[in-house]
Amino acid sequence: MPISACVIQRLDKADSDSPARLVSASEPHPQSDALDGLITRLSDAYHGKSKRWGRLVEPSDSESPFPAELAAYAEGSLGLVALANQLGERLTGLVDDHLPTGGHLILADQQQGETRSLLLALVHHRDGFVIGNDQQVAISGQINHTQMSLALRINLSQWQQGGPSSQYLSLLADRGGQKLADDMQALLGITDGVDPKSETRTLLKAFSDFVEKEDMEEQASREKTDALIDYASDQASRGESITLEELSALVDDKQPKAFYEHIRNADYGLSPEIPPDKRTLSQFRRFTGRAEGVSISFDSHLLGNSIEYDEERDRLIIKKLPNKLKEQLQSK
């Protein structure tokens, strides 16, 4: 994603007993291929990490000055350097409270097509080895782009459009960093949005109901399942939300609105856009088996609902038979 502007600051903190100190920036970082590569790697790493989703409190209702500062920046009355320095001053306290060492605080304004976003990340350094032109091994400090203690991404375009969306802001919430994420939310005036795991589970339940309602053949069901998982996984890897109307067209190109209307009519309570949860998607797989003339295949999410497995008696209990199978059994 092309970078419109980027500011890099340093948060000095030698150890747990030392107070953090911000070395603020005086100007944006010069554009370069190296900077493009670093921001791309940070973005890719961020998309693969556990996040929570939220939205900014209205500036008039927020105790934090950040929503008003962001609005001023988006309107052009506040520069990125000023915004970065104000953010850096506030985040210095978080580093003091939660982290043993400091690092570099990166704020990048990115533009991809019509989408403008803001990425904030605190990165740390590690020692790496290099071999120089004299063939001698030396130790060189390197940015550990996969390790971010705190990070935040805001879809500025979606935020400026307004409306009920809760998918325009996400922040890092890796295991062990929940308290840091809580304090960061409070500091920046962020309130909770949707729960990706819950929304993804509900979407998959809606899809299963749709397949059952349409009484699809096995092959058609498998193809539509693959289409859903491929699309959702691709969106997750790019840090983008699932759009229900877009997904509906992929699930059934002959009736592109069918799945979307099923969701709306059944009132699953899903938002028009859903941040996908990778782990939940990976669990949406199929159990298959064949032995002695019997072939069985079903989606894993049906286990415990319409299908039960009795391990002690080595039995599989199917509560809802497919209509065509039922007709064949009844006409026997």
UniProtKB/TrEMBL annotation:
The record's annotation in InterPro entries points to: Nucleoid_associated_NdpA (IPR007358)
Origin: domain of life: Bacteria
Q: Which GO terms describe its cellular component?
A: bacterial nucleoid
Q: Which GO terms describe its molecular function?
A: double-stranded DNA binding; single-stranded RNA binding
Localisation: Cytoplasm, Nucleoid
> Which UniProt key words apply to this protein?
Cytoplasm
Q: Which family does it belong to?
A: Belongs to the YejK family.
Question: What is the name of the protein in this document?
Answer: Nucleoid-associated protein
What is the taxonomic lineage of the source species?
Bacteria, Pseudomonadati, Pseudomonadota, Gammaproteobacteria, Oceanospirillales
